[in-house]
Recover the amino acids of this structure.
Protein backbone atom coordinates (compact mmCIF):
# COMPACT_ATOMS: atom_id res chain seq x y z
CA UNK A 1 0.00 0.00 0.00
CA UNK A 2 1.51 3.35 -0.99
CA UNK A 3 1.92 6.10 1.59
CA UNK A 4 0.01 9.29 0.80
CA UNK A 5 2.02 12.47 1.18
CA UNK A 6 2.23 16.12 0.19
CA UNK A 7 5.21 18.33 -0.61
CA UNK A 8 6.04 21.29 1.66
CA UNK A 9 8.56 24.04 1.05
CA UNK A 10 11.51 24.06 3.44
CA UNK A 11 11.64 27.27 5.48
CA UNK A 12 14.56 29.58 4.85
CA UNK A 13 16.22 32.07 7.14
CA UNK A 14 16.91 35.68 6.11
CA UNK A 15 20.64 34.97 5.76
CA UNK A 16 19.96 32.28 3.13
CA UNK A 17 19.82 33.78 -0.32
CA UNK A 18 19.14 30.65 -2.31
CA UNK A 19 17.04 31.03 -5.43
CA UNK A 20 16.33 27.31 -5.60
CA UNK A 21 13.53 26.25 -3.27
CA UNK A 22 13.84 22.92 -1.48
CA UNK A 23 10.92 20.72 -0.47
CA UNK A 24 10.25 17.88 1.95
CA UNK A 25 7.49 15.28 2.07
CA UNK A 26 4.98 14.96 4.92
CA UNK A 27 2.51 12.11 5.25
CA UNK A 28 -1.13 12.99 4.69
CA UNK A 29 -3.13 11.84 7.70
CA UNK A 30 -6.43 10.17 6.93
CA UNK A 31 -8.46 9.70 10.10
CA UNK A 32 -7.84 7.97 13.40
CA UNK A 33 -8.16 4.43 14.75
CA UNK A 34 -8.61 3.74 18.46
CA UNK A 35 -7.90 0.74 20.65
CA UNK A 36 -11.46 -0.57 20.45
CA UNK A 37 -11.35 -0.64 16.65
CA UNK A 38 -7.95 -2.32 16.68
CA UNK A 39 -9.19 -4.95 19.16
CA UNK A 40 -12.18 -5.75 16.92
CA UNK A 41 -10.01 -6.12 13.85
CA UNK A 42 -7.41 -8.24 15.65
CA UNK A 43 -10.16 -10.49 17.05
CA UNK A 44 -11.25 -11.23 13.51
CA UNK A 45 -7.73 -12.43 12.62
CA UNK A 46 -6.99 -14.72 15.57
CA UNK A 47 -8.59 -16.92 18.21
CA UNK A 48 -8.55 -14.29 20.97
CA UNK A 49 -11.69 -12.50 22.06
CA UNK A 50 -12.06 -8.74 21.79
CA UNK A 51 -11.70 -8.46 25.59
CA UNK A 52 -8.47 -10.53 25.55
CA UNK A 53 -7.04 -8.39 22.75
CA UNK A 54 -7.97 -5.18 24.59
CA UNK A 55 -6.22 -6.50 27.73
CA UNK A 56 -3.06 -7.33 25.74
CA UNK A 57 -3.05 -3.89 24.08
CA UNK A 58 -3.51 -2.22 27.46
CA UNK A 59 -0.62 -4.22 28.93
CA UNK A 60 1.53 -3.47 25.88
CA UNK A 61 0.88 0.24 26.30
CA UNK A 62 1.88 0.15 29.97
CA UNK A 63 5.04 -1.90 29.40
CA UNK A 64 6.17 0.26 26.45
CA UNK A 65 5.59 3.42 28.52
CA UNK A 66 7.72 2.00 31.37
CA UNK A 67 10.63 1.27 29.04
CA UNK A 68 10.35 4.69 27.38
CA UNK A 69 10.43 6.38 30.79
CA UNK A 70 13.67 4.50 31.50
CA UNK A 71 15.16 6.05 28.37
CA UNK A 72 15.06 2.87 26.29
CA UNK A 73 14.09 2.58 22.63
CA UNK A 74 11.37 0.00 21.99
CA UNK A 75 11.17 -2.02 18.76
CA UNK A 76 7.99 -3.85 17.77
CA UNK A 77 8.58 -6.15 14.81
CA UNK A 78 6.57 -5.04 11.81
CA UNK A 79 5.50 -1.83 13.52
CA UNK A 80 8.64 0.18 14.15
CA UNK A 81 10.76 1.87 16.79
CA UNK A 82 9.48 4.05 19.60
CA UNK A 83 11.51 6.53 21.62
CA UNK A 84 11.01 9.67 23.67
CA UNK A 85 11.33 13.00 21.86
CA UNK A 86 11.98 16.21 23.76
CA UNK A 87 11.34 19.86 22.96
CA UNK A 88 12.53 23.04 24.63
CA UNK A 89 10.16 25.97 25.21
CA UNK A 90 11.89 29.23 24.28
CA UNK A 91 15.56 30.05 24.02
CA UNK A 92 18.00 28.40 26.44
CA UNK A 93 21.51 29.68 27.02
CA UNK A 94 24.24 28.69 29.45
CA UNK A 95 23.13 31.37 31.94
CA UNK A 96 19.40 30.58 31.68
CA UNK A 97 18.03 29.96 35.17
CA UNK A 98 15.87 26.88 35.79
CA UNK A 99 16.42 25.69 32.24
CA UNK A 100 15.33 22.18 33.22
CA UNK A 101 11.77 23.52 33.55
CA UNK A 102 11.75 24.44 29.85
CA UNK A 103 12.09 20.83 28.67
CA UNK A 104 8.96 18.88 27.79
CA UNK A 105 8.03 15.72 25.95
CA UNK A 106 7.02 16.21 22.33
Amino acid sequence: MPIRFEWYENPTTPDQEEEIKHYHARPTLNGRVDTTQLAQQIQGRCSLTKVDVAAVLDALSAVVAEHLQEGKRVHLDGLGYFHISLAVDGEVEAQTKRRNTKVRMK
Summary: Strands lie at 5-9, 23-27, 74-76, 80-82, 86-88, 103-105.
